[in-house]
From TrEMBL:
<dbReference type="InterPro" id="IPR019734">
    <property type="entry name" value="TPR_rpt"/>
</dbReference>
<dbReference type="GO" id="GO:0035556">
    <property type="term" value="P:intracellular signal transduction"/>
</dbReference>
<dbReference type="Pfam" id="PF13181">
    <property type="entry name" value="TPR_8"/>
</dbReference>
<dbReference type="InterPro" id="IPR011990">
    <property type="entry name" value="TPR-like_helical_dom_sf"/>
</dbReference>
<dbReference type="GO" id="GO:0004016">
    <property type="term" value="F:adenylate cyclase activity"/>
</dbReference>
<dbReference type="GO" id="GO:0009190">
    <property type="term" value="P:cyclic nucleotide biosynthetic process"/>
</dbReference>
<feature type="domain" description="Guanylate cyclase">
    <location>
        <begin position="6"/>
        <end position="113"/>
    </location>
</feature>
<dbReference type="Pfam" id="PF00211">
    <property type="entry name" value="Guanylate_cyc"/>
</dbReference>
<dbReference type="InterPro" id="IPR029787">
    <property type="entry name" value="Nucleotide_cyclase"/>
</dbReference>
<dbReference type="InterPro" id="IPR050697">
    <property type="entry name" value="Adenylyl/Guanylyl_Cyclase_3/4"/>
</dbReference>
<protein>
    <submittedName>
        <fullName>Adenylate cyclase, class 3</fullName>
    </submittedName>
</protein>
<dbReference type="InterPro" id="IPR001054">
    <property type="entry name" value="A/G_cyclase"/>
</dbReference>
């Protein structure tokens, strides 16, 4: 008879070794396991087919019953002495012959459970698909594997639930075996031998005691280091359960907010793993996490359906693969802020570092209890991060919608100010058209909440970029970092302000803090190279740029530009032209650098004339191009234009930019740097 069934294979991890070590104990373990197994199979309406040594074969009519039975069985086996059982589940057509079952599905199912660890439940893609509409059962993808005697690779998943272990996928090899990090040590029989020999005991006991004390000390020291490492959390992008761009954007925004909340706990170090980095390194994730010195992984899934909210969060130990803490929240959408705070508190408690009411209060600063306003805000932040003219117009619309929902939403005003500031700074919005919009928004945000690190940082960006108030910007950034020391962007912006003032050691220190928190940001890596360039450490800057380019960073244009300049100052013509060819920047392309090397002033003038036809002109950039050609008078002319056009965000670097070194004694240059307070 042929039928569709859920098929479960189980076995006891390490049973053969236990049998060789102590046969009697092994038989007791096996008997207890069989009794527990048969009880749970009966409870969940399964059909026991046969015992396979220390393993079993069972079928179920329902996938849900099969998975729930597996969860119940694993939990029942967690009481001492724990029995480490691996469980694999697949669904497919089977043929029932007398008291046995056969078929391709049975063969595939038998290959799954070796990919688990004791206490885990591994599922095939078919089973996982059947669970999609059952949000009470959570899973995590382990990857695609070549199972023995199975032609096509098979996608495997692990059940995530209280008491259920999850194998760390990068400990899995092609045979499905994992090294056990917590094997029990059997010392009873050896100690009994010593008791029977008093003379041997007198000689051996002191050595044994010293050995045990040494082991205890090492274990304690190692445990302390391990505990501290777990507090370094790599946060992966939360997945949207529902398809659609808006749901994906909401999940991205929720990830950013979760990072912000956890970063407000000084006892935790949070490292953001961008989606492209995670996807590009699926086969080498362990190495990646080792490089950034993370001890645990935070992942999540999100579903927003009208007024309902589903959030699943999982915190996992990278070294052992064990789940440190996980929970599924099913709440009303209006409880989103509360859910985020609960997650942060539980994570902090599970790692023995309390966030406490003060920490959650700090995170709530400037935010809103209006769920729609909050949704518009986090989607606005995601749009702003893209930094294209279209995405920033979208961000303005979303921040305004948030403000319409809650007119006292301080961070929405802050986001609005940031967007206008960046639009003006990048030449997408005329200064006179946007300055009052940015100023009014940031002032309103500050009036509503002056205790927010984000709002302090927004004021700093506004002061430095649009008003040239560099000293005030530095004060605001110091205040932001005193509120939230592990704020990656604030550390980055503060580093740039310090570099502009020639304080390069402090600048490098703060940019390194930013990279520690956001290790895959193309902009932060580029700014570290920029700081090193300003410090005339060109070779070090190139090393930084090489590392960034070799990492999983998608957009390398800025990196190529800075690398080109560093090679120029080192006098490496071939390298300059090589990397300039990769740069799509109209001003710093290979043609420009050939013009510099050929000292072709007529060609340079032709290029400048073309740029002057553009609607938005960056006069500081034009001045630098002239300085590269040693056209100092023209360079000073463009610097004066840059000052008159209020290009404060680029003029801040006048004194540290190597290209302007020959201008430092010129009266025009001195006059403008004095006006800027540099």
């Amino acid at each position: 008879m042929r039928k569709l069934a859920a098929i479960i294979f189980t076995d006891i991890e390490g049973f053969t070794k236990l049998m060789q070590h102590n046969e009697t104990e092994a038989m007791h373990v096996l008997e207890r396991y069989k009794q527990t197994y048969l009880h749970q199979v009966k409870q969940f309406r399964g059909q026991h087919i046969k015992f396979l040594g220390d393993g079993t074969l069972t079928i179920f009519s329902s996938v849900i019953d099969a998975v729930n039975c597996a969860i119940a069985l694993q939990r029942a086996l967690q009481t001492e002495p724990i029995i480490p059982v691996r469980i694999g589940i697949h669904q497919g057509d089977i043929i029932i012959e007398k008291k046995d079952v056969i078929g391709d599905a049975v063969n595939l199912a038998s290959r799954i459970q070796p990919y688990g660890i004791g206490g885990s439940i591994i599922l095939s893609e078919k089973v996982c698909t059947e669970l999609q509409n059952h949000s009470e059962i959570s899973t995590v993808a382990l990857g695609s594997f070549h199972l023995k005697n199975i032609f096509q690779p098979v996608n495997l998943h692990a059940v995530i639930a209280d008491g259920i272990k999850v194998p760390y996928i990068h400990k899995l090899n092609e045979s499905g075996q994992q090294s056990s990090l917590n094997q029990p040590v059997k010392t009873g029989s050896a100690f009994r031998t010593l008791l029977k020999k008093p003379r041997l005991l007198r000689v051996t006991l002191p050595i044994l005691v010293i050995g045990l004390l040494s082991t205890w000390f090492v274990a304690k020291t190692t445990a302390g280091k391990t505990d501290e490492l777990l507090k370094v959390i790599a946060v992966f992008p939360f997945e949207s359960i529902d398809a659609g761009e808006q749901n994906t954007v909401f999940a991205k925004g929720l990830t950013e907010e979760m990072i912000a909340l956890l970063s407000s706990n000084p006892g935790l170090t949070i490292k953001e793993i961008p989606a492209n980095v995670a996807s590009n390194n699926k086969d080498n994730l362990k190495k990646l996490l080792h490089e950034i010195k993370a001890g645990s992984i935070l992942e999540g899934k999100v579903q927003h359906d009208n007024d309902k909210l589903y959030v699943f969060v999982n915190l996992q130990n990278i070294s052992t693969g064990e789940v440190i803490w996980s929970k599924t929240y099913r709440e009303k959408f209006e409880d989103l802020m509360s859910v985020q705070q609960q997650v942060a508190i539980k994570i902090s408690e599970s790692l023995n570092t309390g966030l406490g009411p003060a920490g959650t209060k700090s995170f709530a600063s400037g935010r809103t209890n209006n769920p729609e306003a909050y949704r518009f805000y986090i989607e606005g932040r995601v749009a702003l991060r893209k930094r294209t003219p279209r995405s920033m117009q979208e961000a303005i619309s979303l921040f305004n919608k948030a403000i319409k929902e809650d007119s006292n939403f301080a961070l929405a005003y802050s986001g609005l100010s940031d967007t206008y500031t960046i639009l003006i700074d990048n030449g997408y919005l005329p200064y006179n058209s946007g300055i009052n919009l940015a100023r009014n928004a940031v002032n309103h945000a500050f009036k509503l909440d002056s205790s927010s690190a984000e709002i302090r940082a927004s004021r700093a960006i506004f002061f430095s970029s649009l008003e040239g108030r560099y000293a005030d910007a530095v004060k605001e950034l110091r205040l932001a970092l005193s509120i939230r020391p592990k704020y990656a962007d604030a550390n980055q912006w503060y580093a740039l302000e310090l570099a502009a003032a020639g304080q390069f050691d402090s600048a490098v220190s703060h940019i390194d803090k930013a990279l520690l928190l956001d290790p895959y940001s193309e902009r932060i890596w580029a700014n570290k190279a920029l700081i090193l360039k300003f410090a005339r450490q060109y070779k070090e800057a190139i090393k930084v740029l090489n590392h960034a380019i070799d990492s999983c960073i998608d957009n390398c244009q800025l990196l190529y530009r800075y690398k080109t300049e560093c090679h120029f100052w080192l006098g490496q013509t071939d390298s300059v032209l090589s990397y300039a060819a990769l740069n799509k920047d109209n001003l710093r392309n290979a043609l420009f650098w050939k013009t510099v090397f050929n000292h072709d002033k007529s060609k340079l003038q032709q290029m400048l004339n073309e740029q002057l036809k553009n609607e938005h002109i960056n006069y500081t950039e034009m001045a630098l191009l002239c300085a590269f050609m040693e056209e100092n008078e023209k360079a000073l002319y463009f610097i004066k234009n840059a000052y008159n056009n209020k290009e404060f965000s680029s003029l801040i670097y006048l004194k540290v930019e190597p290209g302007f070194d020959n201008l430092h004694k010129e009266n025009v240059f001195i006059d403008i740097t004095n006006k800027l307070g540099l």
